[in-house]
Amino acid sequence: MYCEFYIDVFFAVNLLMNFWTLCLANLLRRGTASPWRAFWGAFIGAAFLCGFWIFAGEISTAGLVIFYSIAVLAMIYTGCGFQSLNGLFMAFAAFFGASFLLGGILLFAEPFLGKRKFPFLVITTAAYLILYTGIKLCKYLKGKRSLLCEVQITQKDRKIKIKGLYDTGNRLRDTGTGKPVCVMEYSSFLPLLDKKGADALLEFCKMKLEKDGWEETEALKELQPRFLFYTSVGCQKGLLPVVCADCMTVYTEEGKREVRDVFIGLSRTALSADNSFQMIINPGILKS
């Protein structure tokens, strides 16, 4: 039996399918990998499979499974990235889940491919956009429950854990550094300070600190306190005290994200009526 095999077409088809699958896997696991990273992961996966077909003398089912598993691992490492065993498992699940969904749509579109009514690129791109829109819609409908996460604040040798709300409406940025600013309840921040530091911070917030007192309060100098103008619902123009904490760690379903020298605005009023969260997380903090 004679069969023509075009290695360039095989490579191009796998490159495109791997790219869309990695993009969907990143979306499913809320990854932050760029499209360029997904492209290089897709390139590696396509090259692996082409190499297998070229250099393998006899193709066995077991060999194909092993080789494909290595190719998927290389694709996920390059195209998504993972920092833990749990992250690896989640990335694998997201990749094969995206492959299953994408393959299902292409199976439905097979009659159009057979009759060549539409190019393969158009069909696969349309399938990706359908899945992308569906995943985005499901995430939107999931609501704010998934936006709550655990946050750990570290200041010197003291640590506290609180609940944070990921709020896309928080656009606060420090005017001096341009860094994003999270908002936290004042009372929740106090356990990070000793009595002297807490008293100095209170005086600063009341704007009663003398110049000489500023020079002598080492704890307050380390917090780099400042005031920030802001607007919010019900407040056209406000003044928010802002301090700098040593470290903030955000724990999500995908893992943890650690941010150094994070700026935190201190609110004297409760952020939630039922005390379900004590911090409003600026979305820019996870991208910095």
From TrEMBL:
Pfam families assigned to the protein according to its UniProt record, in alphabetical order: Peptidase_U4 (PF03419)
Source superkingdom: Bacteria
GO molecular function, one term: aspartic-type endopeptidase activity
GO biological process, one term: proteolysis
Spans traversing the lipid bilayer: 6-27, 39-56, 62-80, 87-108, 120-138
InterPro entries associated with the record: SpoIIGA
Keyword 4Fe-4S: no
Annotated keywords: Membrane, Transmembrane, Transmembrane helix
Protein name: Sporulation protein
